[in-house]
Each structure stands twice: as structure tokens, then as C-alpha cells.
Queue: 2 jobs
Job 1
Amino acid sequence: MENINYSLCWEDYDLVLNSLSISERDTILCIASGGENLFSIALKNPKKIIGIDYNEAQIHLVKLKIAAIQTLNFYVFVNFFGFIRCNNRLYLFKKCSSRLDNDSKRFWLDNLDKIGRGIVHCGKLEKYLGVYRAFFLRLFLSSKKINRFLSSKGIDEQRRFYNQELNNLLWRLSFKLFFSQRIMQLLGRQKEFFQYNKKKNISDYFLIKTEKYMKNISVQNNPFIHIILKGTVPIPLQGHPYLDKSNFNKLKKIVGKIILIEDDISDYIKKMKKYTFTKYCLSDIFESVSQDEYEEIIKEIANKSRSGSVICYWNNLVKRNVHTKTNNFIRLDIDPTKNADRVFFYSDFIVEKLMKKS
Ligand SMILES: C[S@@+](CC[C@H](N)C(=O)[O-])C[C@H]1O[C@@H](n2cnc3c(N)ncnc32)[C@H](O)[C@@H]1O
């Protein structure tokens, strides 16, 4: 079985909610990944929500997150997940495991080490970022300085910090070494996500994107930057799908609604009945398929959906944002001043509405 690649979902849940405008009438298909986007969508109480992932391990991860949300109280849950130090995670797992199906229980019993360390740290990408933090970043940035940066009181202060403390040779060198394609595909990201990449120097590309974000957009309330730099976030965390206490308590009641399916989305869409879904959250799945395959999936969604249906997805290194064979989707503008992508390394966020002639 493949391992867990993402123990957290690295896609901005606020962008998803702002672009999909989910109501109680909606039926949603969403890539499962680490589950956070599923949870933020579930909080809008849609009629139906399906999480899909072709990696069985991701499905087991989301099932355990759901069981923990249903079983534990807020602060115990935060400890269990690994946002705060805790030494009784195996006992807490026992409490949650009665809610798991046999396959998931077996998966986790074979992976108790991941539970012991806190499940939000067990993904390939999260471990990779952990190595960067422990062995590179700490060489030139103490945790005291990281805390100072993350509590910057405005862009000027943030920019000053970046120029004086971060923008040095070690920072740039560490980026070059650690975020090169070779190291990334070995330690951080699945190989297939690079097969259509044409960018020659991705470490420079990521450095430019990181620098632009850090110098222009507030890091204070960006949970993704907190995790990259510190491995955790301040808790409770306002607006987060489950680290905000009020969302957690609401989610407890409705999280059982999420149905999880292990399948390739293109196979699933071919099999699904017409008009099953009104909204689709598609992560950046098109990065790992050819332009033709991307166009086929979009065509199939258009064939199987009613006019007014909305899809959203990201591009990272690979451009997959134009599909000429299906022209009944119109791209919706999203206001970049209100919707800065807090996961700053993506190159595009695409929201499209299906407009069929009646
Ligand atoms: C697309 S990946 C996220 C990649 C991340 N944003 C990045 O750029 O490295 C998110 C999840 O999508 C799943 N996934 C990718 N392609 C899929 C497909 N065709 N069908 C179902 N799940 C898919 C992966 O297993 C993973 O858990």
C-alpha cells in the first residue's frame, strides 16, 4: 500500500469556501487528501459530501481524523493530532478506534508509530518540511526569531525582518539544495507530479514565490506558514475547519456525513450517474495527467453536471488551466485582494461555472 503523502491538506480552505459558495442544497465531490477541505465544506452542511482519493492511506487518515473529531473533546483532540506535545496518543487512539472500519483499524494498528508522533506529522510532505526545519532553517533562524516574524504587526515589519534576518546566503542556499526537483521528488512529493513539469529550476521558482508572499502578505494569521516554520499553529485558531473551537464543536455533529471513496477520480466520474454533484473541489490533480487527460476529465464533468455547477482546482508547476475541447465552462474572477492564496506556492487557482444552453 502507498504511504500517506499528505497528513494535512496544503490547499487554502478559505479559497475553497469563497469560490464554491456552498449551500445546504449542494452535493459536493472533493479530493480527500489530508481532509481539511472536506471538513471546511462539511461545516456548510451541504446535502451530500463525498471525499475521494486513489491513495487508500489518505482515506484511512481522513477516517481516523473523523473518528477523533467525533470521540474526543477539543483540547484532547489537538494533542492527539500532534499540534501539542502529548504522551498518551496510543490510549486516545484506542478510544477512537471503535468508530473505524476493520480495514482502517488494521492500517492504523500497523502504523502505531505514526499515531505516537501525532498524525499531522506523518505525511511524506510534512516529514520533508520537518527535516528542512530541523536541519536547515534552525542553522540560521532561532525559534525566538521565527516567533518574532510570525507575530509581525504589519507588512513593513515583516519586510524588514525578511530583508535583515532571512534573505541571506544560507537561506537562499538551503532553498536551492532542499527544494530542488531531485530532492523534492525523492523526499517530499510524488514523482508523478513532476512528469509534466517544464520549469527548469524549481527551487528558484519556489524561492521567488515564497519571498513575494513573505514581503507582501501578512504571515501572522497564515496557518500554512506557521506549520512550515514551526511545525504547529497557535491554538485555538480562528476560522480553521477544526482548530477553531466553535467549528470543532459544530463539526462533531455533522462530520459523519462525509462519505469516503477510494478511487481514481476520472474512473469515478465515468461511472457516476448524471447530476450527482453540483460542486467539485479538485485539488491540483491535473498536474499529474497529460493535457488530453485533463481535458477528458473536464469534458466528463461537463457531461455529467447541470448548468450552474462549479469546479475549482489549483495549478502548481504544471499549467492546466485551459481546456479548449470543453467550452461551456466560464472562468469566474476571484478578487485577489480578498482571496490571496495563503498556500503561496501555487501558480493559479481556477474557478469555473458550467453554462449549458437550455
Ligand atoms: C493532488 S494531491 C496534492 C498535491 C499537492 N497540492 C502538491 O502540489 O504537491 C492531493 C491528493 O490527491 C490525490 N489524487 C491525485 N490524483 C488523484 C486522482 N486522479 N484521483 C483521486 N485522487 C487523486 C492524492 O492521492 C493526494 O492525496
Note: The chain has a mean pLDDT of 95.
Job 2
Amino acid sequence: MILAFIGLANDEPGMLSLVGGIAALLALVAIPLATGLLVNALLGDQKRHADALPGLRWPAANEICPRCGEVNFMPLFCCRHCGRLSWVWLAEVCAFAITAAAVVAISVPDYNAPAWWKDVGMLLHLLGALLAATAAFAVFIGTAQVWQLQPRLPKEGRVFRSKVDQMALVGATLVPVLCTALLVLSLF
Ligand SMILES: [Zn+2]
């Protein structure tokens, strides 16, 4: 990430920006993965429902909830039946959105660079912005669904039972706002 910062801030063609670009790509993979592992470790061992298949299959059209065993159609981050939240997925998508938006925000095109370099930079810039926007949108829809589901869930499945869960969900809800701010900033 630090390499990405140094490399992308220097937007002339050359080794340094190349290293920066590669570092940015690595950060896009490594930061969400590390976040996912961290959240997984924080959650500890979770009991899985006997019907649930091992491993993560999101985005799957039909997914069996690991807690209640009910089938969810196109779940984002939350089981519609018992309210189980896929914290790991939520954290990974959030981390990806923030990383992509941050990379886009710090890679400012250099107007003195040769035309071909500006074109390549512009293309990568747009691609990064698109990825960040897509991930942020998924988080937005996902968290909105979680909030909207709360009153309909059984009492023991609601997120309001735990202060930590509540804080985490509020944090995730703010991620799209942060990403939008970063992307808007990158326009100037
Ligand atoms: Zn469930």
C-alpha cells in the first residue's frame, strides 16, 4: 500500500509508477483477504448447520444458511430467515471498496505526461473507479437490506442484541459514503 502511494503519486511513465501500479493491484487483493481472515479469526469457531455446504459460495443464486439451514435466494450479507450476517464477506467487500476508491483517489493523472501514458492511466483510473463503485453499491444494497430486515427477524436474530455488531453494521453502512467521497475527490 505504501509502495502504491509512492508509485501512483509519481504519474510519469517509468519504473516507479509501474511498481506503484503492481503494488496497487496487490493491495486490492491482499487488504480484503487480510480483513476477511481477521474477521474470521475474531468470530471464532461457528457452528454450521448440517445442511450447509462448507466454504463460501457467495454470490450464489441459492444459498443454504449455515445457521438455520433455510435456503436464501440471492443473499447479499444477511439470512432472510434467521438474520445471520456474513461478516467475513461484508468486511471483504468493504475493504475492497475502500482500497479501490483510495487507489483511484491517489492516482492523479499528470497532464505533462505523454498522450499514450495518459490514455492508459485514464483507462485504469476509470476501471478502478468502476470497481470501487460496484463494491460500494453492493455494500450499500447489502447493509440497507440488513437494516430493513431487522423488524421482520426473530428477536434473537436481530443485530441490536449486540453493541459490537451494531457498531460494525453502522461502520459498514458508512463505507459507501466514504467511497463516494473518495471517488468524488479524485475528480478534482
Ligand atoms: Zn439463517
Note: The radius of gyration is 19 Å.
